[in-house]
Write a structure and sequence with these properties.
Blueprint lengths: L1 H19 L3 H6 L33 H26 L5 H17 L9 H9 L6 H15 L10 H21 L7 H17 L1 H22 L3 E4 L9 H11 L7 E10 L1 H15 L5 H9 L16 H23 L9 E12 L1 H17 L3 E5 L3 H9 L6 H12 L14 E3 L2 H16 L9 H4 L14 H9 L3 H12 L6 E5 L4 E3 L7 E7 L2 E5 L10 E2 L2 E2 L6 H4 L1 H9 L1 E6 L4 E2 L1 H6 L6 E4 L4 E7 H10 L1 H20 L5
Parallel strand pairs: 2-3, 3-4, 4-5
Antiparallel strand pairs: 1-2, 6-15, 7-14, 8-13, 8-15, 9-12, 9-14, 10-11
């Protein structure tokens, strides 16, 4: 209809002139069409160019103007592409569109033309007419060529009211759409930014208005981001294979629904000065601790020269210090709960922060949030761990003494794994960093089990079943039946089936010995088997979704990468070709079974993380033969895969 109107209106004008007996001169005298002007030949365009009149000595003074024009045209072109894309409801290739504008401007300049960008109004107008053929562009180009070549000025014969009405229609339609109709598609803060930009353009002009609009948008972004929630509590467990009684301890105490001893949180997005205090408040509230007035004062006074943190990796006399502070802290928290009417559960023993989705962390947030959180947790004998931090975030935490340096951190982790270390001592007054979330959870689970169990013998893990001299001739190998027995808590009948198979010298799997860095399988390879870790450790590599730059430059220059554990890790360097490490599997870990069951290519890669790693490979051919030869054993393996699938599903963050 719109295209038809564009043809009908000028036609009606000339029909009216014909019926009224008026001539084109009468219409021109009445101002209905443009005034006559002498024809200009096409060669006159080149008469405007006089190289002899150019002041070549002033070219250097125009560089800033040229750069400004490039910026303005590029910025306006980006806005045009974005607006056209929104109106079309389709994504455009911005790089391709900008290349089109750049090439067009280059040709225009070589032919003594002017710079320009998209004719936004004409593009939108043509699109809304429903004429989406490339012939539209060719017709526009031929029309412009015809205007240049023709000796007749088209304004002399085109109704002026038609041109003016078309421009008014386009302007009114755009204003109505972007000021009135868009209210239902924008948040109130975004709509206020839009109105502020529109008013600024009308008052201060297009250039100043856009700058003011950008400033308002930045302020709105900071305000909105500071108010958004980055914290989510997740119910995840490690991939370690615990004995049935240890699993029950973790279920009853570690991951108790009402009073968990281990709590895990995911933090997403960028954490900066505007959101750090809100994040600290949320975490404190979730874990059941309250910031005292002294804590809040330390937050406000936090600076790179004032940390108040013990630099020793193992705090001196932790029991005495904690006992001295405990009464005052608990009294303040009790008063706070009574004042608010809340009766929160007791705080956990371990808090694990998943930082894998934190894209950026600034200095104020690292000290104002994470440093203070570590100090508050240490006062209450809570071990605070973090995992999955990218190199930039890791460096920020270490450089501001929120986390330990690599050597001291190794001592802390060794203390967590030490079965002879007293379990009622504070482990750390700083953040303990781990490569993966499951590694952090496994360390916390092991320490909690050691705390809950009264005897060293009851804390025996599957890894303890693997002798230190794994490859000694006089040392028996750990069988897969032992792993399955502890992993499943199999009954006596099921254990007898495995024992009978091994006593007869039969095998339904292949045992593979690996060195650190050896690849078990690569992503996109055939899923012809699944694997079980019998000794050592296996690292799982996932494809990088958004690679993070490993180049870090501080105010003092390039950062020494030896201070960043992830960059120094051989597995991290291996990940340059395989992806990033998502978890480590210890003895009893089952992997590759999901792709194996679904008969699809591998969705991840796996690499031996330690020397003398041993994995059992259960191939499809052997399992098919097992169905006919030993149905009872086949049913047990199906039970194992079912339980492994349930555990895999339980560790998914989203429902």
């Amino acid at each position: 209809a719109l295209a038809m109107s564009m043809v009908v209106i000028p036609s009606i004008f000339y029909i009216a002139l014909l019926l009224s007996g008026s001539s084109i001169e009468d219409a021109r005298a009445g101002g209905w069409v443009g005034q006559e002007s002498p024809p200009v030949p096409i060669t006159a365009l080149f008469d405007l160019v006089h190289f002899s009149s150019v002041r070549w000595d002033l070219v250097t003074t125009c560089v800033s103007t040229w750069l400004g024009m490039v910026f303005v045209v590029s910025f306006s072109s980006c806005l045009d592409v974005a607006a056209i894309s929104m109106d079309m409801g389709e994504a455009l290739d911005v790089n391709k569109e900008l290349m089109t504008v750049g090439i067009s401007n280059l040709v225009s300049g070589l032919l003594f033309g002017q710079t320009g960008s998209y004719i936004f109004s004409q593009t939108i107008f043509t699109y809304r007419t429903g004429c989406w053929s490339r012939w539209i562009g060719l017709m526009v180009a031929f029309s412009f060529i015809a205007v240049i070549v023709s000796p007749v000025n088209f304004l002399e014969v085109t109704p002026l009211f038609f041109l003016g009405g078309t421009l008014i229609f386009i302007g009114f339609d755009l204003v109505y759409e972007w000021i009135i109709e868009v209210r239902h598609k924008l948040l109130i803060t975004e709509y206020l930014v839009l109105l502020a930009t529109f008013v600024a353009i009308q008052v201060a002009g297009i250039n100043a208005g856009i700058i003011l609009g950008v400033i308002v948008a930045v302020v709105e972004f900071v305000f909105t981001t500071a108010q958004s929630h980055h914290l989510t509590r997740v119910l995840k467990r490690s991939r370690a294979a615990w004995k049935p009684q240890e699993w029950k301890l973790l279920q009853d105490h570690g991951y108790n629904v009402h009073r968990p001893k281990i709590m895990t949180f995911e933090i997403k997005g960028a954490v900066f000065f505007g959101s750090s205090l809100h994040l600290l408040s949320r975490i404190s509230e979730e874990i059941g601790i309250t910031a005292t007035p002294k804590d809040m004062a330390e937050v406000s006074l936090a600076s790179p020269r004032r940390s108040g943190i013990n630099r020793s990796p193992i705090p001196p006399s932790p029991n005495l210090r904690i006992r001295h502070r405990k009464g005052k802290v608990e009294k303040q928290e009790e008063c706070s709960r009574q004042a608010t009417g809340l009766h929160s559960n007791s705080p956990p023993d371990f808090v694990v922060l998943d930082l894998s989705q934190v894209s950026n962390l600034d200095a104020s947030a690292s000290r104002g949030c994470f440093l203070q959180l570590a100090k508050m947790c240490a006062k209450r004998n809570i071990v605070l761990c973090a995992a999955g931090a990218n190199p930039r975030v890791e460096w920020m935490l270490r450089s501001h003494e929120v986390a330990y340096n690599i050597l001291d951190e190794s001592e802390i982790k060794a203390q967590m794994q030490n079965t002879h270390e007293p379990t009622n001592q504070s482990l750390s007054e700083k953040l303990i960093l781990f490569d993966t979330l499951y590694e952090a959870l496994e360390s916390c689970e092991k320490k909690l089990i050691m705390k809950l169990q009264s005897h060293r013998q009851r804390n025996q893990r599957l890894e303890d079943l693997v002798p230190a001299s794994r490859f000694s001739e006089n040392c028996p190998k750990t069988s897969i039946s032992t792993v399955f027995t502890h992993f499943l808590g199999m009954n006596k009948d099921e254990a007898k089936i495995f024992g009978g198979i091994e006593s007869e010298g039969q095998s339904f799997y292949d045992e593979i010995e690996l060195r650190s860095g050896d690849i078990v399988f690569k992503r996109n390879s055939d899923s012809d088997a699944f694997f079980v870790v019998l000794a050592g450790s296996v690292a799982v590599f996932r494809e990088n979704s958004a690679p993070v730059s490993t180049t870090i430059v501080s105010g003092a220059g390039s950062v020494d990468q030896k201070t960043i554990a992830k960059l120094e890790s051989s597995l991290y360097r291996k990940g340059n070709e395989l992806g990033e490490v998502s978890l480590f599997l210890q003895v009893g870990g089952i992997f590759g079974f999901v792709d194996f069951i679904l008969a699809r290519p591998r969705s991840f890669s796996t690499v031996a993380a330690r020397d003398r790693t041993v994995v059992a490979k259960l191939s499809k051919s052997r399992l098919d033969r097992l169905k006919s030869e030993n149905p009872s054993l086949d049913r047990i393996i199906d039970k194992i895969l079912l339980q492994a699938s349930i555990l895999e599903l339980a560790n998914v963050s989203e429902p």
